[in-house]
Amino acid sequence: FPPQPVKAKRQKVRYCDTNYVLLIAIIEAVTGQPLHQVHEELLFRPLDLRHTWLAGHSRPLEPTPKPAMLWVDSEPVEIPLMMRSFWGVYSTTEDTLSFLHALIRGEVFDDPATLSLMQQRWNRFTFPLDKAALRAPGWLIEYALGMIRFRLPRALTSLHPMPAVFGHTGSTGTWLFHCPELDVLLSGTVDQATAGAIPYRLVPKILRAVDSAAR
């Protein structure tokens, strides 16, 4: 779709990594350091994320097992140069949950208002009309500044509406979410390149199980 006014109340949105690449360039220009050093100094060491690193650019702070294999359908794939080129992050569920916990407690940004700014303006994704869009986050989610808000509409949740979750997913079936209503943090992956939609089917089931157990 064509360019849109930045200040428009509602905008068409479509996910891509362009802003991520631009942000990397801005961070490196402002700090005068490569991105992996900025991550280590401002995030990994202060938050004690000892098993998290940027693929092909750095190493974890402590010895860490080799990352799980990535799959495309039934075929294993190793793409170290590609992972390096788009600054892929390797981590563990423990580290990602620690990061998310620190984020919601206001320990990541110097100004706590930054997190509120990231969640100030939500735009709903449009319904996918092409094959490429079918693999990307779809119409059930809303996007703000680097953060997803996801909840199933009441029509799809029978008698128990799904509470909203905030966080992000990845194209290989990864997810990291916070559900404020249930006070739950969720992190996981299936490491499958064809499973980008899996988190949007699995997370509601997990939330229902948590909610039922708490009743």
Verbal overview:
The protein is α+β, with helices and mostly antiparallel strands. It folds into 2 domains: 16-63, no CATH class; 92-215, no CATH class. The chain has 7 helices and 10 strands. The chain has helices at 18-31, 35-44, 80-85, 93-104, 113-118, 131-134, 198-214, and strands at 53-54, 70-72, 75-77, 89-90, 123-124, 141-143, 148-150, 165-170, 174-179, 184-189. The strands form 3 sheets. A 6-stranded antiparallel β-sheet has the order 5-6-7-8-9-10, sandwiched between helices. The chain has a two-stranded antiparallel ribbon with strand order 1-4. It is globular and about 50 Å long. The model has no long low-confidence stretch (mean pLDDT 89). InterPro entries: Beta-lactam-related (IPR001466), Beta-lactam/transpept-like (IPR012338), Diverse_Enzym_Activities (IPR050789). This is Beta-lactamase-related domain-containing protein. Residues 4-185 form the Beta-lactamase-related domain.
Write the layout of secondary structure elements.
Blueprint: H1 18-31, H2 35-44, E1 53-54, E2 70-72, E3 75-77, H3 80-85, E4 89-90, H4 93-104, H5 113-118, E5 123-124, H6 131-134, E6 141-143, E7 148-150, E8 165-170, E9 174-179, E10 184-189, H7 198-214
Antiparallel strand pairs: 1-4, 2-3, 5-6, 6-7, 7-8, 8-9, 9-10
